[in-house]
Amino acid sequence: MKIALQRVDDGFNMEAVDEGGHKVLMDSSLENGGKNNGVRPMQMVIMGLGGCSAIDVLMILKKQRQEVKDFRIEIEAEREKEKEPALWETAHIIFHLTGNIDADKAARAVELSMNKYCSVAETLRQANTKLTWEVKLHA
Questions:
Q1: What is the mean pLDDT of the segment spanning 59-67?
Q2: Which of 32, 52, 81, 130 measures 20 to 30 Å from 59, CA to CA?
Q3: Is the dihedral of CA 15, 50, 131, 36 positive or negative?
């Protein structure tokens, strides 16, 4: 993997580009001297957790022939207090699924993602982040 990072302005605003040309803007907060023009790097880690697990869960449910009409994830995460660097201490993921989905299959798909397949979850786990989750099915 190759990532290129380019400073965009005279502050902390950065544009990251992957090998495929996909771009992401990162910046720091106003309080830290940034201009708030992008996602914070540590927020991107949590976004990556959601994206990684979402792909896993949807792939598993598709293989199980579950009809997913809508899919959404919410994540609440807390970083260590008064530490530098401040790692992620906890992350709680709520998986919202809509469609003709068996509750046991949905729960198992999420469990497999979070405990076996999602590399971002394992990376966070290796950093002692406490990961918890729940599955909510909607009609």
A1: 98
A2: 130
A3: positive
Closest CA to 61 of 101, 90, 29: 101
121 vs 107: CA distance, rounded Å: 16
Peptide bond before residue 41 is cis, with ω within 30 degrees of 0: no
Give the C-alpha distances (Å, rounded to integers) separating 99 from 17, 65, 75, 124, 125: 35, 12, 21, 30, 31
What gap in Å lies between CA 125 and CA 23, rounded to an integer?
Answer: 27
User: Based on the number of CB atoms within 10 Å of its own CB, is 27 exposed (0-12), middle (13-18) or buried (19 or more)?
Assistant: buried
Whole-model pTM?
A: 0.94
Scan for tokens 């579950």, then name that residue: 66
Q: Is the confidence at residue 139, as pLDDT, over 90?
A: no
- Give the amino acid at 138: H
